[in-house]
Amino acid sequence: MKTLALIFLLSGFFFITVAALGVIRFPDFYTRLHAAGKGDTLGIALFVIGLAIHNGFNLVSFKLLLIVLFIFLANPIGGHVLSRAAFKSGLKPWTRKGE
Amino acid sequence: MGTKNALTKKAQFKQFVILPAALFIFWIVLSGKTDFKNLVIGLIAACLIPWLCRSVLCLQATTTPGKSYAAFDLPYGKIFVYLLWLFWELVKANIEVALIVLNPKMPINPQVRTFKKTLDHPVAQTVLAKSIILTPGTITIDVEDHVYTIHALTEGAALALAPEEGEGEMPARVGRLFNEEAEVK
Fold it and tell me: Residue B67 is inside which H or E element, if any?
């Protein structure tokens, strides 16, 4: 059980790290949103599931799983709102050709 | 509100029985107490909130005029199966993005594409737009008049979602998720 929790925690760490690295490395706003929107969602989800497994089966674990559910609902909205606002205000996406 | 009558009896029943029940269970889980005072306060709140929000919970259909849907009258069984599939897609999407980020050459070719998918249920539109953000290399920029503007990290991701002909797997899945339900009513 502890090993399973550890696997979830470490993979969560890995995805959050990759997301942070992606935000630094990608060339423009939209591509950075790709890293932030997806990496964070899965990273946090895996991390919190790992904590729930570590804690065992009780009410606190159930609350942790509810946090995962709400992050799943909220994170895509954040990504969409940011990209929509940028697009409406006329920010041009970076392309290979314009390099 | 004139649109309120457009809800079927079954939809209204579901709305005003399932939602308070769900809220009440949520209250118990969060408070963690089962003494009489807490339960009564929770029950009152759980019944009052759907009633106060009744105008928000009645959603206008996007194409059929005058028709409206109850916001929580959803095919939950099918949605659960869809969520499992979506979670697996999310894992794949992340591994894909992780490989791109860790690749020193950074093999990306970002592009903006549009595709059209008509969904009558407003919740279906939201589900599709959110699913696009969570899956392989694509984010939804805008949804207007059933036209989805998406930004894709790679050409493959763009084509998977909006092929030159036909429709991608995800819009088709979301369509199946909700259209059958619409016919039953």
Answer: none
Partners of residue A31 in chain B, C-beta under 8 Å: 108, 110, 153
Domain map (residue ranges) of chain A: 2-88
SS3 content of chain A, % helix, strand, coil (to 5): 80, 0, 20
- Give the number of C-alpha atoms closer than 13 A to the C-alpha of residue B27, restricted to the C-beta side: 20
Locate the domains of chain B by residue range: 2-70, 76-184
Per the listing, tokens 């980020």 go with: B101
**pLDDT digit of tens for each residue in chain A (99 aa)?**
888 999 989 999 988 888 888 888 878 888 888 777 778 888 888 899 899 988 888 888 888 888 888 888 888 888 888 888 888 887 777 777 655
**CA A55 to each of CA A41, A68, B9, B32: distance values in angstroms, whole numbers, following the listed order:** 21, 15, 44, 17
What ipTM did this prediction achieve? Answer: 0.73
Contact B140 A87 (CB under 8 A): no
Fill in the amino acid letter for A75: N
Q: How far is B94 from chain A (nearest CA, A)?
A: 6
Pairing of strands B138-144, B111-116: unpaired
